[in-house]
Amino acid sequence: MSITTFTTDSSSTEAPPTSGLRVDIADIAVVVVYFIFVMIVGIWASVQANRSTVGGYFLAGRSMTWWPIGASLMSSNVGSGLFIGLAGTGAAGGVAVGGFEWNAAWVLVALGWIFIPVYISANVVTMPEYLAKRFGGRRIRIYMSVLSLILYIFTKISTDIFSGALFIQMSFGWDLYLSTGILLLVTAAYTVAGGLAAVIYTDALQTVIMVGGALTLMFIAFSKVGWYQGLVDGYMSAVPSVTVANTSCHLPRSDAFRMFRDPVSGDLPWPGLIFGLTVLATWVWCTDQVIVQRSLSARSVSHAKGGSVLGGYLKLLPMFFIVMPGMISRTLFPDEVGCVDPVVCQSVCGASVGCSNIAYPKLVVELMPVGVRGLMLAVMLAALMSSLTSIFNSSATLFTLDLYHRARPRASEMELMVVGRVFILVLVCVSLLWIPVIQTANSGQLFDYIQSVTSFLAPPITAVFLMAIFWPRANEQGAFWGLMSGLLVGLIRMVLEFSYEVPACGQVDLRPAILADVHYLYFALILLAITSMVIVVVSLVTAPIPEEHVRDMWTTYSILTLKGQFRPLLLRTWQTHEKMAESEVCKALSPTHTHFPTPKSREKISDFSCRDTASSCGHFVSLRSI
């Protein structure tokens, strides 16, 4: 889970004032080489992948191993917005924001050991599809699909585009539309051509570039301030030369180096950071299509678990190569990064509310030598492109399988492939059209909106998935009305949130108590509790769900595994149907599919798979992980 709270309010396509520094020809050469290398990897993955079927295009033929999955989990979440936003928040408030990254480590373990086995046993491709199988009916599936697409288009894509464009402006001074348009078109090119396989392999490459480049900058930055102790001393005395009279806005927080802060007065209270953040992180890492789709492409449950473990370890790193470098940037450049006077801030970065958002780009253009600076620009481009490719592919999956295929159930495989590719192009066009909205809007409110939307909409979704997996009595009526009640409460909070502005430092807080006194992480817990209670009450007063839907649960999977019944069950199934037509084997193991698997499906029984070539058999069970 990541947080983006940086602000800027320029409405021009011109570079901000701090963009006087330009990159060298050698830096541009590094970026060009990076683009060429990424395109080569994307083309190679496209050629290697089976792109002619639904399973091959959207799930990479379910053939991925653990290391590209883990790398893709990291890069799919770490967009350019994370580099700029996380470093900026660290510069303004200290290390506590790194808890958003560390929390993801153990939530990813839950993804691999609890959620993925259920999704695979349910034989699903999308998360709305799982809810439809678990509860029955269509309204929950449609609601989840539409909601996810709206969130992807107007929050994730816009965040990455805006922050990536900010970095490009500061480094190159390029026109915003030209640079962003080129990035989107190149990104969409190999996403459309290669599907999830191309996305995962390019993500793996870009993860290596991101981690390597960010670690390089981290060591250079730490050496400039005298390593960790120098950072502690320097940050606490990083005060701008121009301040606002009778305020303490210019002073660093006294708890800047504390991860767990006061539960009442802290900007990130520790109970919210542990429990409330887990609610939001469960939505991001365990139920969001962008993330889960990578794990569903694994060739076995063991590889899915291995990918989760690797992703968890990688998520420990942003604290050190993003948050702390952001704090170092304030230490080295207090007048620019730590400015508080509106006039000064406007002249520095074009935003009167503060310039903490330039913390990471400022380090890059000031500290990195020629050539290596180009590598860091490539890192930012890698973060932007990897995040966008993940969103493009997952959005196309949701639209094609959950919306279009439901409207045209007789659509052919070729038609679904064409629709998925065309929808990605539509997303590119919408993204380009969204750029003027990002520029003309008050960007501080925009990114506050992005952060708030998570706390307003994620808890009900988290509650429904938890009930679906752990409580057999939860039914469709309970889940639907739980989602609706949670949405209503969240919208009420959102309307209030944007009806009142957050007071500036030194101003009296005139907002209602629900805004001033209830932190959004606490609100996430409250919303989870409300949604869960509605699900329980409505489910208990309505008819139980049919038995056929209750099988797709973690308890069913785990009990069979613990009793040793899962392996013999599959073994008997294989022996019984060994001599049957391959289509009948696939049908026996996956009642919802009757397509022919490839000869590769006759692998040794320790890793049985039913994969597809001519069509999407889709079913997958691995004995290796049991």
How does this structure look, described?
The structure is a single chain. With 626 residues, the chain is mainly alpha-helical. Among the domains are: 17-242 and 298-439, Up-down Bundle (Sodium/glucose cotransporter); 563-607, no CATH class. The chain is built from 26 helices and no strands. The chain is 69% helix and 0% strand. Helix 1 (25-48) crosses helix 8 (176-225), helix 1 runs parallel beside helix 17 and helix 5 packs parallel to helix 10. The two termini are 29 Å apart. The radius of gyration is 25 Å and the shape is globular. Residues 1-21, 51-58, 440-447 and 559-626 have low confidence and may be disordered.
Short account of what is shown:
The protein has helices spanning 25-48, 54-59, 66-77, 80-93, 99-121, 127-135, 139-172, 176-225, 227-236, 270-287, 289-296, 301-314, 318-332, 334-337, 342-349, 359-367, 372-407, 413-440, 443-470, 476-499, 513-516, 520-541, 547-550, 554-562, 566-576, 582-589. By secondary structure, it is an all-alpha fold.
